[in-house]
Specification:
The chain is α+β, with helices and mostly antiparallel strands. The protein has 3 domains: 8-120, Orthogonal Bundle (Butyryl-Coa Dehydrogenase, subunit A, domain 1), CATH 1.10.540.10; 122-231, Butyryl-CoA Dehydrogenase, subunit A, domain 2 (Beta Barrel); 239-381, Butyryl-CoA Dehydrogenase, subunit A, domain 3 (Up-down Bundle). The protein has helices spanning 8-25, 29-35, 40-48, 67-78, 82-101, 104-115, 231-267, 279-308, 313-339, 350-357, 367-383; strands at 121-124, 140-144, 147-158, 165-171, 181-187, 193-195, 209-220, 224-225, 269-270, 273-274. A hairpin with a 2-residue loop joins β9 and β10. α4 runs antiparallel to α5, α7 (231-267) runs antiparallel to α10 and α9 (313-339) packs antiparallel against α11 (367-383). 51% of the residues are buried.
């Protein structure tokens, strides 16, 4: 791959994540996939390595880097298992609403433990009837004196039941649609807050996915992030930052699948020679390598752009998520094809990688939603005569 001008510290982060991937994730990834066991042991190793705090300011216990460095770590871990990497990355998804919209006191209360990996975080917006249509959520938060009372169910929440800190979007005023949503921090042991069963998924099986159930769940009014009515903004600004992380997962997973396939193509022989000698296979591999490098370049630039604080970062984080996840799905499918019958067997990792890849086109906004986001920016640019 291209060097992308990584400095010494950034390169050390990548090498550290790679070592953990090779030594700790690879030996257990098949078992984690088979059993669906949550990877607490590996997350503990990542915590000890300080990687949970990469993007969190030093003032709040982190390392003080940014979106780009976090994407480097997520990409590297994803080469080995995105069931593990999403469990790691989803804590960032839960932390970003606090980081972006929390008060100084809220940040001091929650971020140091998240940065240290002592507490996982999670983000709750999706519901059974409001996945892509985030503005139609039905979970409510009713103000009663110095408390809010939450009622409703969030669905398919990554790290659900395992995380201790949850950023949750709920309606404080149903009459205002998306403008009536607000964001709250809810702690796991709060009375009235429970969880559904752990979902049995196609891929990322080591990751925990559960419902969040709120039944007259009372939280202090001070747990609101920002003010009432900005919950939808909190969610969208969070996704602006975290969609590059999904792109990084996709790039890492695709690269990991290609690495496995290159090794296999050197070892597997047909008609008396290694299959990598056949032009048809070479062309498939060349296409994969080219597409991955293009996706990586866009992901890196988009994450750096997010760190710049640009107003139109959503356009480019959506582009990165869209391109990278589509590339990943195609690459992992082609890797299985090159493995042939062996690729369909669990003895080899590429069938797992293909199953894992699908979710990348779905979560944190389907790729159809990403196209909507990009399209809206293009419309605004045309209207403002900014095309070019």
């Amino acid at each position: 791959m291209l060097s992308y001008g990584l400095n010494e510290t950034q390169q050390q982060m990548v090498e550290l994540a790679a070592r953990i991937g090779r030594e700790k994730i690879v030996p257990v990834r098949a078992e984690l996939d088979e059993t669906g066991k949550f990877p607490w042991d590996i997350l503990g190793i990542l915590a000890d390595a300080g990687l949970f705090g990469v993007y969190i300011p030093e003032e709040y216990g982190g390392l003080g880097f940014g979106n780009f460095e976090n994407c480097l770590v997520v990409e590297e871990l994803s080469k080995y298992c995105i069931g593990v990497s999403v469990s790691f990355a989803a804590s960032g998804l839960g932390a970003y609403p606090i980081l972006l919209f929390g008060s100084h006191e809220q940040k001091l209360k929650y971020l140091p433990d998240i940065a240290a990996g002592k507490k996982l975080a999670a983000f709750g917006i999706t519901e059974s009837g409001s996945g892509s249509d985030a503005g139609s959520i039905r979970t409510t938060a009713t103000r009663k004196g110095d408390r809010y009372v939450l009622n409703g169910v969030k669905q398919w929440i990554t790290n659900g039941g395992e995380a201790l800190t949850y950023s949750v979007i709920a309606k404080t005023d149903k009459s205002k649609g998306a403008r009536g949503a607000s964001a709250f921090v809810v702690e796991k042991d709060t009375p009235g807050f429970t969880f559904g069963k752990k979902e049995n998924k196609l891929g990322i099986r080591a990751s925990a996915t559960r419902e969040l159930v709120f039944e007259d769940c009372e939280i202090p009014a001070e747990n609101i992030l920002g003010r009432e009515g900005i919950g939808f903004i909190v969610a969208m600004k969070t996704f602006d930052q975290t969609r590059t992380g999904i792109a990084a997962q996709a790039v890492g997973l695709a690269q990991g699948a290609l690495n496995e396939t290159l090794k296999y193509a050197h070892e597997r022989k047909t008609f008396g020679k290694a299959i990598i000698s056949h032009q048809a296979v070479q062309h498939m591999l060349a296409n994969m390598a080219t597409q991955i490098e293009a996706a990586r370049a866009l992901t890196y630039e988009a994450s750096r752009y997010c760190d710049s604080g640009a107003k139109d970062m959503a356009k480019y984080s959506s582009m990165a998520k869209l391109l990278s996840s589509d590339v990943c799905m195609q690459v992992t499918t082609d890797c299985v094809q090159i493995f042939g019958g062996y690729g369909y067997m669990r003895e080899y990792p590429v069938e797992k990688m293909m199953r894992d890849a699908k979710i990348l086109q779905i979560y944190e906004g389907t790729n159809q939603i990403q196209r909507n986001v990009i399209g809206q920016f293009l419309i605004k640019e045309v209207a403002g005569n900014k095309v070019g």
